[in-house]
Amino acid sequence: MPSSPTASPSLPHLLSLALRPLPLAPLQHVLALFLYGIGKRHPGLYERLGCHANKRFGIDPTDLPFAFVLEPKLIRPEATAVRCLPSRLDASIRGPLSALVGMAEGRLDGDALFFSRQLDIEGDIEAVLALRNAVDDAGLNLANEFLAGLGLPGRGIAKLLSRHQFATATAGAGSWS
User: Fold this and answer.
1) What pTM, to 2 d.p., does this model score?
2) Distance between CA atoms of 73 and 53, rounded to whole angstroms?
3) Shortest CA distance to 39 belongs to which of 57, 53, 26?
4) 95 SS3 class
5) Which of 79, 105, 134, 152 could be a cystine partner for 31, CB 3.0 to 4.6 Å?
6) Which residue pairs from 145-152 have beta carbons closer than 8 angstroms and sit at least 24 positions apart in sequence?
């Protein structure tokens, strides 16, 4: 069950400033691979959006110097990195990167983030809810999805991280005897 958030941490301001001069073109290729991989590993994700699959969503991590326009079309979904969100979107979601990722992965309650004003949602709320429900149903882990998109090296890193998380979680457990 998603937890209710306290204040979601933001990226350090210096890191955000360091990312500002980076060109967005290389990010486009990474986004395309990321969406393609998610579609392959979660084939029903975009279909779950129903009539909202052709909507344009703005996703603005407020602690990053860029945002994303997501078009979760059934055929060739697209995500575009932009310096600021365009005005002609069906809906937009703004908030710290940690809150957006936590909500997407189901670790944080999207309603609680909204009502605590950590997320700002504008536009077609029904479309945003459909997107959130589709992502919730898919059970995404964005770090694992990103690593899976890197092929064999990424899958190896994901396995190492998974083992580390298991070892960390069980290290504090006492013995049965």
Assistant:
1) 0.74
2) 5
3) 53
4) strand
5) 79
6) 145/34, 145/37, 145/38, 145/41, 146/34, 148/37, 148/41, 149/30, 149/33, 149/34, 149/36, 149/37
d(CA 165, CA 171) in angstroms, rounded, equals 10
13-140: CATH topology is Nonspecific Lipid-transfer Protein; Chain A (3.30.1050)
- What phi and psi, each to the nearest 5 degrees, are found at residue 88? -100, 75
Q: Which of 62, 129, 45 is nearest to 101 (CA)?
A: 62
pLDDT tens digits along 55-102? 999 999 998 888 999 999 888 888 899 999 999 999 999 999 888 888
User: Residue ranges of the domains in the chain?
Assistant: 13-140, 142-171
Name the helix (H) or strand (E) containing 20. none
